[in-house]
């Protein structure tokens, strides 16, 4: 699943000495988290090497479990995944929504575009090529920053969680200054994982008819399933929208250079007009690109994050339903045992355990789901407000830009008429 | 000035063998004009010649009729008229033609009653620039009204059908008639005055009476023929009236064409217009006769493969009736609407290019035929892609007409006038891609490109060399830019579509969101995005209609410029050929002198004179076309600067408006987002 990482990005290599160290900018954080005084984590640095990204995870803490109060370690994406899997596998955490693992750093899209650009180099002017390349590099940088942010958010959510923050594996992840020797899953493991996820979905189907006495969960289940589908759709559409917006912005490049070269072969006073407009498009394409990337950051990423979070919540519900089914089975077993009067005590214990587990899960799940909702609403609010503000800001800037350009054109036109012929 | 220029390029004939020289593609039948030519300057023949193409087919008919006519009436005029009539009428209504032809007087009466046939005729006249045909016939009728009457009876019932209104129209014509006849005798230079004299007759109703009598006798079939009898009186006279004035102006030949209804006003106007026109030609002054032309209401006519699109063309004369020096009283009404199909536009372009391209005028390019687009329309009932296609084409056609109307010379072209004004046009047959004419055109096109390759010319004129290079560079840049804009349009449309998809999915999401405030905010977001979708789509339209089409137009015009440049090269080539021939003849003469063949010397000298004339003419032609092209290019550049500046500003304004809308929408959304709690 993580193989892709091996050919990870070195888009910038040509220009930037094979490494780029964008620091994570807290403003771009997609998810609102309550800060914890005693355990705060950030990714202070990230390094893109030929085939992987190295994140420097910086921790500040007052928790007694840690040997020091401030330290940093270097982690790779696979180690994040390993950490995530430890949480998922730990039955103790069955009642919690496990924060979704950060997505694999994916620079394929950028790389592909760069390749395309290289192929099309002959069809455009040098200027256009340079600009397009810059555009791609900016895009790559944005992707990179986003990846870092996702990883950071993952850790921050763990740190903010009352149960997860105390987890041993988490502590090791943060503290152990050596390589964790996490290997990519080998084929067998992958197969196992695949079978497990398959069996889970089969199980989900089987459990779909599981009656649930608790209305809250019944309702949540319906909601989450539907919500997940719709937010997935929405995310897809938002992605496409921002992508198209970027294309529009990029097509301004050609427009701008086209006008520029038109101006050079112009023999009338139109050259000034063309130059002005060309300049204007050059500026406006930058703004339009900002619109696109801000939409991506505020809108698509919020949606995407909650798509994954919803999925994690669904998993939680599955675990609870599973526990419920187990509990009911244990009850049946107990009844049978009592009828036969054999192994009654054993059955009673099993039933007791199942019951406790189920009730524990239900209780935790309830508060987790409520938490999830609160978190979701908060994040949407924050990001939608920011989105609207940024949209307004950019639109105003563009408006101003065009207005100035028109004013200049008109003035120039008057000038041309005044002194003409 | 126009007179001399126009004729030469097409036909070298002018004075010598008119008929024989006309082996050109178009040259065929117009004998009528030639006769007139004798009296009048050479310019006349050329005009008809331009239209000859359409008339070729009917040439045979002409002869027949023409002779018959002669027998009836001896006057030259008549003969011409009849011939002309024949030429004109045949295409659509072959059956009816004979009738009109025979009774010359009837012609006058006919014109109004048979609306369709007459119009065609009229148009052709106009094309042929022969107001005369009409005039003479009428004159004949006026001269011998009684005869006419008797003759009228003879003609088929249709002809007989005349209304009083018709008679009125006739009245108008009679006035013209006389002038026409007079005009022949009169010197070409003072046409205007002649026309003035003519006007008075129009009002005179005495003639009416004569005319009426025959008409009254005739059964009143007119009702059928002319359902719109009311309109007929108005329309009928104008055809005759309107066209003639335009012609004289264009040609600058003072034909004593009848003045339109307002004789007094028109005299002055005509004179004024005349001079102003001349000025325009000379100076390309910006002042022109302003027309506001709209193409609208595209509609599909017919079904299946025979279906075609028709458009309404509405023309407004902006300064109609004002006595500006620029307002040439060419139209009878301040506003008119006609229905045209696409091939009519192509036909108009064809006619204009035949007339003007070879003398160096840049004729705005007509939209291309689109087999794909049309097939879609033919096949599908209603879908967005075909409506889009139709709308694009409509805009193209409108710009095409507007460009013509802005051209000082083209705007006065009788074909253009007819196009705007006549209710019916002869069907343009030569525009169809599959017709024989289409094949011919193709062959000719191939020949042209071939000659473009083979005919080389050492450019001695630096101005031309420079311009040619500039135009080529411009062409290249425009094409590149056009491609970029097309890409932009595509992306922006996609953006609109994807925005709409996002709006829909967000609306769905808001439906399933359990948190009330968030749900409301999301549904607001969906609404905002829906509005934004419209902003994007509208902007995409603006990208297309303002920017992309502007570029495309100019790419087309540049193509036309290239053609014109090529015409100049051809003209140069002709001149050089003539010079070479002259040199040969001189050599020959020298040889004869040396060898003492005195008997052949005279002939050789004759030939030398002839070739000297041709060389001279070739030189003149070349100079003339060079001059015209310079003027045209200057005009092109002035217009280009104006067009680009205006349209770019307009376009930037649309961009700005889009952003303003976005600001509005997002500002509306902001409180909603903040209201999430």
| Beta-strand segment tally of chain B | 3
The main β sheet of chain A shows up as: 3 strands, antiparallel
Largest beta sheet of chain A: what is the strand line-up? 1-2-3
Tally the helices of chain A: 9
Number of helices of chain B: 27
Strand content of chain B: under 5%
Kindly state the percentage of residues in helix of chain B.
over 70%
Order of helices and strands of chain B: HHHHHHHHHHHHHHHHHHHEEEHHHHHHHH
Low-confidence stretches of chain B: 1-288, 320-328, 430-436
Give the overall shape of chain B.
elongated
Shape of chain A: elongated
Distance between the termini of chain B: 83 Å
Largest interface: A-B, 59 and 57 residues
Major sheet strand order of chain B: 1-2-3
Q: Mean pLDDT across all residues of chain A, rounded? A: 81
| Oligomer description | heterodimer
Question: What does this protein structure show overall?
Answer:
By secondary structure, chain A is mainly alpha-helical. Helix content of chain A is 69%, strand content 6%. A three-stranded antiparallel β-sheet of chain A has the order 1-2-3. In chain A, β1 and β2 form a beta hairpin. Chain A is elongated and about 110 Å long. The termini of chain A are far apart. Chain B is built from 27 helices and three strands. Chain B has a three-stranded antiparallel β-sheet with strand order 1-2-3. The interface between A and B is large, with 59 and 57 residues.
């Amino acid at each position: 699943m993580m193989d892709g990482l091996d050919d990870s990005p070195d888009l910038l290599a040509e220009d930037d000495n094979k490494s780029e160290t964008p620091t994570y900018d807290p403003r771009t954080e997609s998810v609102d988290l309550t800060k914890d005084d005693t355990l705060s984590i950030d990714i202070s640095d990230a390094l893109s090497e030929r085939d992987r990204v190295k994140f420097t995870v910086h921790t500040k803490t007052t928790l007694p479990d840690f040997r020091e109060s401030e330290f940093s370690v270097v982690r790779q994406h696979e180690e994040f995944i390993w950490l995530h899997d430890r949480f998922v596998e730990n039955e103790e955490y069955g009642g919690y929504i496990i924060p979704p693992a950060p997505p694999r750093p994916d620079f394929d899209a950028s790389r592909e575009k760069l390749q395309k650009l290289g192929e099309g180099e002959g069809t455009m002017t040098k200027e256009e090529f340079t600009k397009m390349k810059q555009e791609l590099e900016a895009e790559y940088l944005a992707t990179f920053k986003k990846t870092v942010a996702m990883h950071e958010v993952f850790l921050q959510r763990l740190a903010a969680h009352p149960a997860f923050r105390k987890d041993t594996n988490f502590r090791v992840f943060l503290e152990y200054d050596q390589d964790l020797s996490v290997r990519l899953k080998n084929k067998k493991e992958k197969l196992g994982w695949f079978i497990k996820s398959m069996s889970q979905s089969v199980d989900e189907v089987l459990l779909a008819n599981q009656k649930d006495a608790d209305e809250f969960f019944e309702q949540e289940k319906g909601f989450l399933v539907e919500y997940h589908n719709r937010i997935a759709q929405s995310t897809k559409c938002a992605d496409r929208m921002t992508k198209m917006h970027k294309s529009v912005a990029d097509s301004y490049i050609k427009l701008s250079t086209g006008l520029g070269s038109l101006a050079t072969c112009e023999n009338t006073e139109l050259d000034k007009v063309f130059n002005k407009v060309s300049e204007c498009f050059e500026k406006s394409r930058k703004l339009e690109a900002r619109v696109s990337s801000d939409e991506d950051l505020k809108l698509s990423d919020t949606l995407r994050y909650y798509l994954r979070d919803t999925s994690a919540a669904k998993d939680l519900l599955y675990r609870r339903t599973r526990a419920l089914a187990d509990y009911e089975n244990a009850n049946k077993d107990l009844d049978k045992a009592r009828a036969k009067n054999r192994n009654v005590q054993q059955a009673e214990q099993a039933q007791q355990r199942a019951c406790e587990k189920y009730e524990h899960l239900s209780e935790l799940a309830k508060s987790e789901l409520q938490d999830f909702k609160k978190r979701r609403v908060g994040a949407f609010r924050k990001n939608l407000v920011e989105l609207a503000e940024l949209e307004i800001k950019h639109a105003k800037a563009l408006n101003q830009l065009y207005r100035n350009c028109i004013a200049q054109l008109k003035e120039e036109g008057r000038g041309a008429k005044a002194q003409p012929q | 000035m126009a007179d001399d220029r126009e004729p030469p390029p097409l036909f070298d004939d002018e004075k010598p063998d008119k008929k024989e020289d006309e082996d050109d593609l178009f040259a065929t039948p117009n004998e009528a004009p030639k006769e007139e030519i004798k009296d009048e300057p050479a310019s006349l023949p050329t005009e008809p010649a331009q239209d000859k193409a359409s008339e070729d087919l009917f040439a045979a008919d002409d002869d027949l009729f023409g002779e018959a006519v002669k027998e009836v009436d001896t006057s030259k005029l008549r003969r011409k008229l009849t011939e002309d009539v024949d030429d004109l009428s045949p295409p659509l209504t072959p059956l009816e033609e004979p009738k009109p032809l025979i009774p010359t007087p009837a012609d006058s009466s006919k014109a109004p009653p048979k609306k369709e046939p007459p119009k065609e005729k009229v148009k052709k006249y106009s094309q042929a620039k022969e107001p005369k045909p009409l005039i003479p016939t009428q004159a004949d009728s006026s001269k011998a009204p009684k005869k006419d009457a008797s003759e009228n009876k003879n003609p088929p019932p249709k002809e007989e059908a005349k209304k009083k209104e018709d008679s009125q129209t006739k009245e108008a014509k009679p006035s013209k008639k006389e002038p026409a006849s007079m005009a022949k005798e009169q010197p070409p230079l003072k046409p205007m005055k002649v026309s003035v004299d003519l006007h008075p007759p129009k009002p005179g109703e005495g003639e009416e009476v004569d005319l009426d009598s025959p008409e009254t006798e005739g059964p009143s079939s007119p009702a059928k023929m002319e359902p719109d009898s009311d309109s007929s009186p108005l329309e009928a006279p104008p055809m005759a009236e309107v066209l003639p004035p335009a012609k004289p102006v264009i040609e600058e030949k003072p034909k004593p064409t009848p003045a339109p209804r307002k004789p007094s006003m028109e005299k002055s106007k005509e004179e004024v217009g005349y001079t102003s026109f001349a000025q325009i030609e000379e100076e390309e002054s910006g002042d022109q006769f302003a027309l506001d032309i709209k193409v609208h209401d595209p509609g599909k006519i017919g079904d299946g493969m025979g279906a075609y699109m028709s458009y309404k063309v509405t023309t407004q004369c902006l300064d109609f009736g004002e006595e500006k020096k620029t307002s040439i009283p060419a139209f009878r009404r301040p506003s008119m609407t006609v229905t045209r199909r696409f091939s009519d536009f192509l036909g108009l372009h064809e006619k204009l290019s035949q007339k003007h391209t070879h003398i160096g005028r840049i004729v705005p390019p007509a939209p291309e035929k689109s087999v794909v687009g049309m097939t879609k329309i033919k096949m599908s009932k209603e879908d967005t892609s075909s409506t889009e296609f139709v709308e694009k084409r409509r805009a193209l056609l409108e710009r095409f007409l507007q460009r013509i109307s802005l051209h000082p010379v083209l705007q006065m072209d009788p074909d253009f006038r007819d196009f705007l004004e006549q209710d019916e046009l002869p069907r343009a047959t030569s525009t169809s891609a599959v017709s024989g004419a289409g094949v011919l055109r193709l062959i000719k096109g191939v020949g042209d490109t071939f000659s473009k390759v083979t005919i080389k010319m050492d450019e001695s004129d630096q101005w031309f060399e420079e311009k040619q290079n500039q135009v080529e560079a411009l062409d290249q840049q425009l094409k590149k830019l056009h491609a970029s804009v097309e890409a932009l349009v595509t992306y922006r449309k996609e953006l609109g579509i994807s925005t709409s998809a996002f709006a829909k999915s967000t609306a769905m999401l808001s439906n399933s969101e359990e948190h009330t405030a968030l749900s409301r905010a999301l549904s607001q977001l969906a609404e905002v995005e829906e509005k934004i979708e419209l902003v994007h789509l509208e902007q995409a339209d603006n990208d297309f209609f303002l920017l992309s089409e502007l570029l495309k137009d100019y790419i087309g015009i540049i193509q036309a410029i290239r053609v014109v440049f090529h015409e100049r090269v051809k003209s140069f080539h002709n001149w050089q050929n003539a010079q070479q021939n002259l040199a040969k003849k001189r050599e020959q003469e020298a040889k004869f002198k040396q060898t003492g063949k005195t008997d052949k010397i005279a002939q050789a000298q004759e030939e030398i004179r002839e070739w000297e004339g041709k060389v001279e003419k070739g030189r003149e032609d070349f100079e003339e076309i060079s001059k015209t092209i310079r003027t045209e290019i200057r005009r092109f550049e002035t217009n280009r600067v104006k067009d680009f500046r205006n349209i770019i500003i307009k376009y930037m304004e649309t961009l700005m408006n889009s952003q303003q809308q976005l600001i509005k929408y997002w500002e509306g959304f902001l409180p909603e987002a903040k209201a999430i709690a």
